């Protein structure tokens, strides 16, 4: 039994080593940076019909880097995750339509302003809400962390409205259109772009935006000052040579279809599926890859926890119980943020989003597997152990040759079911920037504002895959019971 445990531990250690948990220092002479960005904030940051990240922020960053002589890698994710990645030193800088505020200056150092914006508020197209006073007693939908949210929070008591928070813009717009809330606040260019793209909203103050503010590129306070200086240098250069104006005008004056595809393609499920088939396929492959790697490692980890849970050693049983209790009780999203943002903030060691995602799946799913593995071993008739011991086998030999084989056979359906659960749980990893199927859907919706059709496609893809896995489960169960 000790030999079997050692094998499992060594296998887990080897795989986790391959995941690259250790940070690899970049040579000081290489001006290459990791930049995070909001993935769903058109026209500043979004994905075009060719699945390329574009927008005012992205094009300005590209031109600034060219002018200042540095290179970079962009990691798009949710706005809050993007900002926290920089605060925890997971990334060097962030450009995400970030308004420069006194509170943020306590945590970040900002570049020279690269865009002046103002806050607008919008309602459903046929809404009877026309003034801020009409918001009294109503609910307003806001995207977390934005300047629009900050402004709305500052006036909510004055005008007596309630607030609902969401992590992406399209969900905010749909909440208003569907009548769950009556209005939203956001940067004026953002609302104008989404309306031009066909979203049924109406801006109530297009000529008089509130709380005009500056957008800035940010780095962690006291760090990456060379990057900040390079950004400012490049920004000054492109403003002087006219490139800046070309970039901004490109997105504020062009038709939305230039970036989203034709209205005909976006008006049907088949058109969206055909236009974005490469993106859907890529997202599905990443989902399946995460699922397979996650369930294999989680099974090894869960098997170890299960074996420890039926050990004769009370300390080992207690350890197994505690680990299972902790990781079954912790919400997966919290665990993902803890691994990706919390630990690096304390240790200073960078962990890639993919590694954090796999560890999240392994620790969470492995805890559930450990619980049913222990239960499976305990469900084997007690007489089996007595018979094995009466034949001269030690406890470890009896477990390895008699109890474990019988227990694993009983657990096959549970393993397949956990595979299906892991597949669905991968969708939560989109919060830390992993481009799996759910995040792919979010990016497409941000581009074409066709939430119902896109999510119908995503739901059908999940349903087809889960149906196939269910059929596999039934087939395996019949084979093992034959």
TrEMBL record:
<comment type="similarity">
    <text>Belongs to the binding-protein-dependent transport system permease family.</text>
</comment>
<feature type="signal peptide">
    <location>
        <begin position="1"/>
        <end position="28"/>
    </location>
</feature>
<keyword id="KW-0732">Signal</keyword>
<dbReference type="InterPro" id="IPR001638">
    <property type="entry name" value="Solute-binding_3/MltF_N"/>
</dbReference>
<dbReference type="InterPro" id="IPR010065">
    <property type="entry name" value="AA_ABC_transptr_permease_3TM"/>
</dbReference>
<keyword id="KW-0812">Transmembrane</keyword>
<keyword id="KW-0472">Membrane</keyword>
<keyword id="KW-1133">Transmembrane helix</keyword>
<dbReference type="InterPro" id="IPR043429">
    <property type="entry name" value="ArtM/GltK/GlnP/TcyL/YhdX-like"/>
</dbReference>
<protein>
    <submittedName>
        <fullName>ABC transporter substrate-binding protein/permease</fullName>
    </submittedName>
</protein>
<feature type="transmembrane region" description="Helical">
    <location>
        <begin position="322"/>
        <end position="345"/>
    </location>
</feature>
<dbReference type="InterPro" id="IPR000515">
    <property type="entry name" value="MetI-like"/>
</dbReference>
<dbReference type="InterPro" id="IPR035906">
    <property type="entry name" value="MetI-like_sf"/>
</dbReference>
<feature type="transmembrane region" description="Helical">
    <location>
        <begin position="454"/>
        <end position="476"/>
    </location>
</feature>
<keyword id="KW-0813">Transport</keyword>
<feature type="domain" description="ABC transmembrane type-1">
    <location>
        <begin position="284"/>
        <end position="473"/>
    </location>
</feature>
<feature type="transmembrane region" description="Helical">
    <location>
        <begin position="288"/>
        <end position="310"/>
    </location>
</feature>
<dbReference type="Pfam" id="PF00497">
    <property type="entry name" value="SBP_bac_3"/>
</dbReference>
<dbReference type="InterPro" id="IPR001320">
    <property type="entry name" value="Iontro_rcpt_C"/>
</dbReference>
<keyword id="KW-1003">Cell membrane</keyword>
<dbReference type="Pfam" id="PF00528">
    <property type="entry name" value="BPD_transp_1"/>
</dbReference>
<feature type="transmembrane region" description="Helical">
    <location>
        <begin position="351"/>
        <end position="373"/>
    </location>
</feature>
């Amino acid at each position: 039994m000790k030999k079997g445990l050692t094998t499992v531990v060594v296998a887990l250690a080897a795989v986790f080593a391959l995941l690259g948990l250790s940070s690899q220092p970049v040579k000081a002479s290489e001006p290459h940076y990791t930049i995070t960005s909001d993935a769903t904030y058109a026209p500043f940051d979004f994905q075009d019909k060719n699945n390329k990240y574009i927008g005012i922020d992205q094009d300005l960053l590209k031109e600034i880097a060219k002018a200042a002589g540095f290179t970079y890698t962009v990691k798009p994710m949710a706005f809050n995750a993007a900002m926290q990645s920089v605060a925890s030193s997971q990334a060097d800088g962030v450009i995400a339509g970030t308004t420069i505020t006194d509170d943020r200056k306590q945590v970040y150092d900002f570049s020279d302003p690269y865009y002046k914006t103002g806050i607008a508020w919008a309602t459903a197209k046929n809404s009877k809400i026309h003034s801020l006073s009409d918001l009294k007693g109503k609910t307003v939908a806001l995207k977390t962390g934005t300047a629009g949210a900050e402004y709305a929070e500052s006036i909510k008591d004055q005008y007596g409205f309630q607030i609902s928070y969401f992590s992406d813009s399209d969900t905010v717009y749909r909440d208003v259109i569907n009548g769950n809330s009556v209005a939203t606040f956001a940067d004026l260019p953002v609302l104008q772009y989404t309306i031009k793209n066909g979203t049924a909203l109406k801006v109530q103050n297009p000529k008089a935006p509130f709380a005009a503010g500056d957008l800035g590129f940010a780095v962690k306070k006291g760090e990456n000052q060379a990057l900040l200086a390079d950004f400012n240098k490049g920004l000054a250069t492109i403003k002087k040579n006219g490139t800046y104006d070309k970039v901004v005008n490109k997105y504020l004056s062009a038709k939305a279809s230039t970036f989203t595809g034709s209205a005909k393609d976006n008006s049907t499920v088949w058109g969206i599926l055909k236009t974005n088939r490469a993106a859907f396929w890529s997202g599905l492959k990443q989902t399946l890859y995460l699922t397979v790697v996650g369930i294999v490692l989680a099974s090894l980890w869960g098997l170890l926890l299960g074996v420890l849970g039926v050990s004769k050693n009370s300390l080992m049983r207690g350890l197994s119980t505690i680990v299972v209790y902790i990781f079954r009780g912790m919400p997966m999203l919290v665990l993902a943020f803890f691994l990706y943002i919390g630990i690096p903030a304390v240790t200073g060691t960078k962990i890639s989003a993919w590694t954090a995602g796999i560890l999240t799946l392994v620790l969470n799913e492995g805890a559930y597997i450990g619980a049913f593995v222990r239960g499976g071993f305990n469900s084997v008739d007690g007489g089996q152990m007595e018979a094995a011991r009466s034949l001269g086998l030690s406890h470890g030999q009896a477990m390895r040759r008699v109890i474990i084989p019988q227990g694993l056979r009983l657990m096959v359906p549970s393993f397949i079911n956990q595979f299906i659960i892991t597949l669905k749980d991968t969708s939560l990893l989109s919060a830390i920037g992993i481009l799996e199927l759910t995040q792919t859907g979010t990016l497409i919706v941000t581009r074409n504002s066709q939430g119902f059709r896109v999510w119908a496609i995503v739901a059908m893809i999940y349903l087809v895959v889960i149906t196939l896995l269910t059929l596999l489960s039934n087939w395996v169960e019949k084979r093992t019971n034959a």
